[in-house]
Amino acid sequence: MRFHHIIWDFDGTMFDTYPVMSAAFRAALLERGIDEPAETVMSFFKVSMFYAVQSYTEKYRLDNEFFERYKALSKAAERENARPFDGVAELCRTICESGGKNYLFTHRGGSARYFFDKFDLSGYFTELITHERDFPRKPSPEGILYLIGKYGFAPDDALMVGDRDLDIQAAQGAGAKGCFFADGGEASGIADYNIDSLPELYEIIAIN
Q1: Range(s) within the chain of domains with CATH label 3.40.50.1000
Q2: What is the mean pLDDT of residues 20-36?
Q3: CB 174 within 8 A of CB 144
């Protein structure tokens, strides 16, 4: 294997959650009489949920009641509709069976554990770093540096897989490599690797 330590992002990388989150956000806007194009809302969420909320809050002077309503709609929709991308479970299992380890580094909170348990992914992961751990947000490399220190692996033996440049920046800031999951969108200009589908990782990781 070229990389024995695979560090995953959650939203937009392991789980196809952007359509669910952005639809819930748009529904909350519509309840306020605000009709934003679905593709525009989605593009904001692909930057980050924080960016989307901040941008629309500034644009429409949204209050905390709106945000709480969005969170309620999103939580219900995610539990019903959020799914991992095709092939994720098989890939994570193969990494483990080949002598590698998987880790999660996400800004998402405890719901990540819920979905890992729901889709039987927890057993393939050595550690989950979520918002509850209170590490600085990516692109800070501190979460990755913590994993490197705790498990004693070389930075160049680690690959961070994410769908945003900040995932790549976090990896490179820790001395690791970064793989950008474009999912049919525009490739990253700073990533060490770019992929359009997760099965492409088999070749990058060099799983025999």
Answers
A1: 5-16+83-205
A2: 96
A3: yes
User: How do residues 110-164 score in pLDDT, each as one tens digit?
Assistant: 999 999 999 999 999 999 999 999 899 999 999 999 999 999 999 999 999 999 9
Could you please state the CATH topology (level 3) that the domain comprising 5-16+83-205 is classified under.
Rossmann fold (3.40.50)
Q: Give the whole-angstrom CA distance, residue 45 versus residue 36.
A: 13
Comparing CA positions, the residue from 99, 91, 106 lying closest to residue 17 is 106
d(CA 71, CA 103) in angstroms, rounded, equals 26
pLDDT for residue 3: 98
Could you tell me if 176 and 187 are in contact, meaning their C-beta atoms sit under 8 angstroms apart? Answer: no
Query: What's the distance, CA 206 to chain centroid?
Result: 22
Alpha carbons 82 and 20: distance in angstroms, whole number: 7
Where exactly does CATH 1.10.150 map onto the chain? 18-81
CATH class held by domain 18-81: mainly alpha
Residues near 16 by beta carbon (within 8 Å), at least 6 away in sequence: 82, 83, 84, 85
* pTM exceeding the 0.90 threshold for the entire prediction: yes
Which residues does 194 contact at the CB level (< 8 Å), separation at least 6? 179, 180, 182, 187, 188
